Amino acid sequence: MRKLKLQMQMTINGFVGKPDGKNDWMTWNPDDEFIAFLVSLIDSSDMLLLGRKTAEELIPFWEKTAKENPSHPFAKKITDISKVVFTKTLDQSPWNKTTLATGNLEEEISVLKKKNGKDIIVFGGAGFVSSLVKEGLIDEYHLIINPTAMSSGMTIFNSLDGIKKFTPTQSKLYPGGKTVLSFTPKNE
User: Do 17 and 52 touch, CB atoms closer than 8 A?
Assistant: First the structure.
């Protein structure tokens, strides 16, 4: 069965976005090792899941980047990968290589995981990922910690009903300043 892998940027105090959803708090000082990590996550997957709000910003951004900078290390990969956008408001996709998922979250994810292929990667946003966390649908967490903090913002773990335990699988500080913490959920 395919794994559902989360790649999420966050602050050192656990926020994944400002209260208004903006992400100008993220640091971007890419180094070759960090880029290689991101590329390996994308290459291990053949499907990208997104919430509608994130899709509306992310898909056009990466399509434009792929056209303007064809040598970008992962813009073309993100543009070319099959995408599924979870939405309650759209009835058809305005994006290339993108289908919509409008049904029950657990059922939709279960069907996707059972399909043949590589793993599935999730980029966000906060509300969509919170729903995945709450339902226990994520198999691997790759949390990219930026060396920033905010007084308030959006989180992905506030939907939990109690304590959720994880097994650490990686902790790596990259030369550009980001730290990746990777975990798998403990099945209790």
Answer: no
